[in-house]
Amino acid sequence: MGFEWLAILMFVGFFFILMSGYPVAFSFAGTAIVFGLIGTAVGAFNPARLLLLPNSWFGTMSNFTLLAIPFFVFLGAVLEKSGLAEELLETIGIVLSRVRGGLALAVVLVGTVLAATTGVVAATVIVMGMLSLPVMIRYGYDKKLAAGVIVASGTLAQLIPPSLVLVILSDQIGVSVGDLFLGALIPGLMLSGSYILYILGLAFFQPEKVPPIPADVEIPQGRQLIKKVFKAVVPPILLIFAVLGSIFFGVATPTEAGAVGAVGASVLAAFNKRLTPQLIRDAAHSTAVITSLVVMILFCSSMFSLVFDALGGKTLITNLLTGLPGGYWGFLIVSNLAIFALGVFLEFMEICFIAMPLFVPAAQALNIDMVWFGVVMAINLQTAFISPPVGFSLFYLQSVAPKEVSTFDIHKSAIPFMVLQFIVLLIVIAFPQTVRWLIDISATTGS
Description:
mainly alpha, single chain
């Protein structure tokens, strides 16, 4: 072994600094500087390599795919801050209110729709938690089911396009974001469908957990309800078709579709007389914060990657992963376990920039379909995101939950939905066509 031990110490040191609560971007950069100096002192690192960084950074800034990030974030911010997301949840809840388990089904459907329009987990979980959790508790829903369905449905924004996770993953694993969107759509809908089947199963076998709304509660009917549906539900559905349809049918690139979505969300807000200067400022501020965070992490992670690679770290990791017992399956098991373990403690962006650069060379060496691999990792991240005791979605809901729903209730509520997600993950691993089918159809149509 040459200086690979330095690379191992570098990664351990970075992880220790990150877990201490230091910002991820500065953890990347600080660790790279320290071990770059150490490597220079012992003759393992040539400082001239740093001259490659400006080219890498300019390449990042000219990456047309990454331009989709601010568009999709702005789209989600407008829907959230304008109150359109709240109206969507309220209206679908009214439509399904007389069905046993209707409120829980409404949460799943709204979570799916918001995932396909916003791609932002925190906003979706918080909005649905504030609006639907108190109502479900008031009408006698099981507290754990009510909390679990919100946490799981809100986290669908991790997987269902246009997901911010998929945009960043596409850059890290080197595949088309359009292919990744196509590949993730069916697994995302499978997750949503599994939640619906679970709720319907409870309605049949344990009806006391999912009661219908009492008959004495007044609900809009007839023309009034139809008008409300056309105002609150139809426009977001049309926006989804405009964004995802333009990508899937080859009319627009994901970045162009993101621009269409951002304009479309603004038009919806204007149509509802809510497009105010303050709304635009708030949405633009949220977009600038998230986009700046992504770009800063990209810059600092490229610096870390350059030093880590020069010390032999990437070669060492690739050799270890490709030499695992079981080959393909050994790598798949280890990579999934590692991503899940990291996902319990870290945000998805941190994982994308830390772990994926280590796994991608080994996956390519084993001739793994990288689009399928990216979708598998995204499902895994989604499962980790709701995993007790530190899943981020649990804390999002906890911040807005009524006092009668305890922290223990929220954390325990995620377990049945983790099982459902794990089942879907196994199905996607066993049947890669769940990912490849739409991509193959798109390729055939395009040719």
